[in-house]
Amino acid sequence: MNVRRKLSRVGVAGLLLLAGDAIAQEDRAAVIERLADEVFANSTLTREQRIAELEWFAEAAEPFRGMAINTVAEGLTTHTWERDVLTPAFLELTGIEVTHNIIGEGDVVQNMQTQMQSGRNIYDAYINDSDSIGTHIRYGSTINLSDAMANEWKELTLPSLDLEDFIGIQYTTGPDGSLYQLPDQQFANLYWFRYDWFQREDFQQQFRDLYGYELGVPTNWTAYQDIAEFFSEHIGEIDGQKVYGHMDYGRRDPSLGWRFHDSWLSMAGMGSPGVPFGNPVDDWGIRVDEDSHPVGASVSRGGATNSPASVFAVTKMVEWLRDFAPPEAQGMTFGEAGPVPAQGNVAQQMFWYTAFTADMVSPDVAVTDDQGNPKWRMAPSPTGPYWEEGMKVGYQDVGAWTFFDSTPEDRRSAAWLFAQFSVSKTVSLEKLMAGLTPIRRSDIFSEQMTEMAPKLGGLVEFYRSPNEAKWTPTGTNVPDYPRMAPLWWQNLAPAVNGDISAQEALDNLAADLDNIMARLARAKVFATYEPILNEPKDPEQWLSQPGSPKAKLDDEMPQGTTVPYDQMMEDWMSAGTRE
Predict the structure, then answer these.
(1) β-sheet bridge partners, residue 189
(2) By C-alpha distance, which of 90, 103, 106, 213 is closest to 562?
(3) What is the pLDDT of residues 241-255, one digit of tens each?
(4) How do residues 174-194 score in pLDDT, each as one tens digit?
(5) Are the C-beta atoms of 348 and 194 separated by less than 8 Å?
(6) Residues near 562 by Cβ (< 8 Å), separated by ≥ 6?
(7) Nearest CA among 501, 148, 457 for reference residue 319
(8) What is the pTM for the complete model shown?
(9) Domains parsed from the chain with CATH numbers
């Protein structure tokens, strides 16, 4: 409606209001153009398409203009960028003031759990790891996004949201086919190594003489151990600096749990084939029946948490930390250990989160050259002796927008708009370039990422490869992530410290997982997919059957095998891409 027609309807009394409205529209147009041209210049959309998306947000937000809402996320570079760049842009665009709180990951989970249990609104939206998808599908308090987008949010859902463009949407989808979380960022857990050291001919010859095969990217755990020993004990020092063949962390802390339940056992081959989560036994060792009811974690119930493959995995973690990592690593947490490889004295790390990539590319760190080119590379993590084709290879974190029915509808709707803004095609490529945590296929294959690829040590190639789909988060078998995740570090810390054996620690963990699932089932807290535990029986009856849990292998450390990094990259590219 033009201003003249509008004036004829409201009369002279509305003149000042309409004049103000016209000015506001002009200001909005200027804001949109500035955002499209300056703040979000890097995008897979054309300028006209960016302007159209921004105009849609401005119009859709009209009923909520003047509101102030609170969202929350953990302390990643990506989320800090959202706080510092996106919230002021969104305020200018929509008039909605978003306080994007950055707190610890454990605090995010704790607040989420409190809100789910109490029904008291703490935050209007959470960026919560998709590891909690099993929780969200069961409690009935998480907003089913598929239903909401078809009903209450039908007019508030961005027409160009393009869910099929998200590379992690399968991880936030329940067994019922409904979407429960909207991916906001994701990063994988890969193998990291000093490419420059591995390319040295003197090191290659020395390794060949000692171990009888080539120094390269390890494809099994034996090779990883050989390389760790080689750099720690046989090389020992490079350019006057003590070097180590391995890096990890072992402090009794909640982050120690991430070290294990982020697919460490499945990397050894503990679970069942099946991507993304392993079926019927997942990467926690929890078995489900054909209707997605958890039936047990202990081998005696058909689970694999305390199976021989799990014992092997934990034993190797403890041995490598003790024998090949810097001594101070034993007392470090995840956050303290993460930056250590950038200091230049670590040869490789099997369990390295690509979220640290942004901290590895500065020219002033020891692992880049004077032009900022990486001396390191990332590659697939080696698999253990129990691993078989068709299984997931490693872990991928997917932080995703999550909403609860305890949030007032208007605040929830305003937060839904901000969530979509943060992942829109107008915004997502700029966010990827800032935090290096991709969510959209279109961004991964953009010209900007092609240009950045040489400085990112294989990150872009990994995400363009079809192999990326083998790195997946915790799945739907875990019925209550907030309650069950702490059991890992509490039970496994004594094994890491050497107080008890890996078998004892895992027996305790499996029993605790079963006990909490039994209590949750008795309490009838779940709306669906509740645990129905198998009765215990002799573990040998399960171990003698095909599949997971798997019987102990006679040889858990077969001959080491490696592949040249450059050959591996050629193989990736020849295998096609996800595009």
Answers:
(1) 353
(2) 213
(3) 999 999 999 999 999
(4) 999 999 999 999 999 999 999
(5) yes
(6) 213, 214, 215, 216, 217, 218, 219, 223
(7) 501
(8) 0.91
(9) 3-186+399-440 (3.40.190.10)
